[in-house]
């Protein structure tokens, strides 16, 4: 499994929720160490610098991530929010977020892992209470469980991303068609 963080969902909270990959099959955890968690915060552009994290930060982040995923799924399916997940997300969102500062070089956001997580939680609150809720879709790849924002024309997007899932599905369909097509004999 590729260890690179992928940002194809169209919203930081959805990309965060997607860090546990293949939830329906061979689950793959992206946040295996505090360093991997901090790498996600940096690569997402959420923060510019972050203090070193600890195992407790990873446990807290995965707990919030799972709450976000459950709430996104509830909202996407039109179901009532899971109360426990709601309490977890709101508790994280109440903590102080990362605060950007203006420097002579431009904007700079320095944070602790707790502040970065609070920022993600607040973004999840905004997403789940905002106008993009009807645009949330789950990837059409049966192995993928990413939820993304579909801003395509006509809302016809089927995959979280072409590179991550779309090309795999299209290539598999092509191979299946080729395999089942009758052989053409040359004369």
Automatic annotation (TrEMBL):
Sequence ranges assigned to domain Zinc finger CGNR in this UniProt record: 137-178
One Pfam match: zf-CGNR
Domain of life, per lineage: Bacteria
Name of the featured protein: CGNR zinc finger domain-containing protein
